[in-house]
Amino acid sequence: MKQKSFSTAAIGPEHGFRQSESALIVGSRSPSLSFSSLPAKKVEDCACNIVDLQSEILDEINALTRAEAEIGRAIDQYVEDPTLKQVLELRYLNYLKWEEIAVRMNLTFRWTMTLHKRALETFSAKAR
């Protein structure tokens, strides 16, 4: 399918348009606006913001990684029972939901909650 192209002559004075109006409709062939470095400045600012945000995200990831390692060491240090330890690790290091922990450990939901309570009591008693 052929597309029709329009020129300023096609919508010129003979069609009731003045030259300035036809230039607005079709667009000027010579750049009347000079684009300064404004768009480039915006791109540069956005790129700098992205780099800053990436740095902040990396710092937060590193802080969370250190916190997870500290939690893992504390669980190992203060909880001896392997079942109680597993409940805490699955919840606080693997971020599983209670239902997922119960299924993974082949336990009932209620028993999972009971074990969690025991694990926290053991942890609190030894951590003091």
Folded structure, characterized:
The protein has 128 residues and is mostly helical. It has helices at residues 19-26, 38-78, 82-92, 98-104, 109-127. Helix content is 67%, strand content 0%.
Summarize the structure.
With 128 residues, the protein is mainly α.
Number of strands: 0
Number of helices: 5
Largest β-sheet summary: none
How much of the residues is beta strand, in percent?
Answer: under 5%
Mean pLDDT: 83
Q: Roughly how many Å is the radius of gyration?
A: 34 Å
Give structural attributes.
128 residues, single chain, 67% helix, mainly alpha, disordered N terminus
Set down the secondary structure blueprint:
Elements: H1 19-26, H2 38-78, H3 82-92, H4 98-104, H5 109-127
